[in-house]
Amino acid sequence: MIDVIFLLLIYFVVSSTYTPPESELTPALRTERDAAGRSSDLTPQVVEVSREGAAVVYRVGAQRVTGRAELIALLRTLPRAPGVVVRGSDGATTEGAFGAIQACRDAGFDKVTYVPGR
What we know:
This protein is an alpha/beta fold. The protein is 30% helix and 22% strand. It has a five-stranded mixed β-sheet with strand order 3-2-1-4-5, with helices on one face.
């Protein structure tokens, strides 16, 4: 019986891993600060896609456009560094949402995120 206890003790000692305390681990994310501020201080642009009757309507802030060409022209005037979020409403069609995503790509945005309606 004592032999079995010693074998189990040796097994648990050998098979356990020793990890350093969490306070001693290096963070995976690092931030860079510069004189102009951090890029995380910028908020992404929000394009809201909705449907009014049969037409798809795109809203960026207080501006409202109905065509993809108008949306691309509007998005080209905005800063591209923070990215853009395409938010679909409950009545938005899939075609309208994907049209907004493609318009964001055509306007030069690299960071495009889609958030579906509730």
